[in-house]
Amino acid sequence: MTSAGLQKPVVSGRFLLFLHVKNMATILCIESATPICSVALVQKGVVIRLQETDVLQSHAASLMEFIQDALVSAGLAVSAIDAVAVSKGPGSYTGLRIGVSTAKGLCFALDKPLIGIGTLKSMAIGMIRACQSSEISTLFCPMLDARRMEVYTALYNSTAAEIVPVSAKIIDESSFAEELKSHTIVFAGNGAAKCRKLLGYHPHVRFLNQEIVSAANMASLAKDAFSKGLFEDVAYFEPYYLKDFIAGKSIVKGLR
């Protein structure tokens, strides 16, 4: 009995082991939703290894090589992974398919949980870190190039909370007019160039001229999802394409 007359709670060794695993989790993060192919190995929410390239159409050839290199350089066997996190979209149809199929294959083979991370939210994390801004009046607008004047985008505040949900948006002179009345908006990503001519004049518009797509930005999100047990169904999980895939016209004779 304690001094207050209450019995001390019994904490099993199994529960303590569970807490230890949650705090010490090793998570493999895969980013393939954009032209950037990136792999990060994360322990306790900290990136310990990072492999990435901006070489176009290199995902299929580079992804497994990056995963192996990250594990070998960290001195870890693939079985040491506690979970696999993958950028789930929106983004490139082909890139998403490669990343998600790789992540699901690893999870099936290793019997490990799968974590899906929103691509735009991950980008917003990178933007916030790059700007080092905590101003509540600043919003962050990651943009992925879609077609013509269309982008995949969303708005986040300085804590990466979603203010305007993910959507496919056609950019024109009136875009973000309401938000710009009372906020500074920082734009970044490979779709942000579409805003420069239309919105670049606005005093509350800023552009971040650096690459902000990286598996490293998934670290804190993956750690949080793992600690809360927010896992995907490996068998049924599919990327978030946002729009249906539209194939280009074949240039191969006989397939037109």
Number of helices: 7
Which CATH class of the largest domain applies here? Alpha Beta
Beta strand %? 15-25%
Structural class: alpha/beta
In the CATH hierarchy, the architecture of the largest domain is 2-Layer Sandwich
Roughly how much helix do the residues carry, as a percent range?
25-40%
Q: Give the number of domains.
A: 2
Helix-strand string: HEEEHEHEHEEEHEHEH
- Neighbour order of strands in the largest sheet: 3-2-1-4-5
DSSP summary, beta strand count? 10
Instruction: Tell me, rounded to a whole number, the average pLDDT.
Output: 87
User: Which spans have pLDDT < 50 for at least 5 consecutive residues?
Assistant: 1-20, 245-256
What would your notes on this structure say?
The strands form 2 sheets. This protein has a 5-stranded mixed β-sheet, sandwiched between helices. The chain has 7 helices and 10 strands. The protein has about 260 residues and is of the alpha/beta class. The protein starts with 12 loop residues before the first helix and ends in a 28-residue tail after the last helix. Helix content is about 30%, strand content about 25%. The N terminus and C terminus are likely disordered. Helix 3 links the parallel strand 4 and strand 5. The longest helix is centred in the middle third of the chain and has 18 residues. The radius of gyration is 21 Å and the shape is globular. Helix 2 packs across helix 3. It has 2 domains: about 120 residues, ATPase, nucleotide binding domain (Nucleotidyltransferase, domain 5, 2-Layer Sandwich); about 90 residues, ATPase, nucleotide binding domain (Nucleotidyltransferase, domain 5, 2-Layer Sandwich).
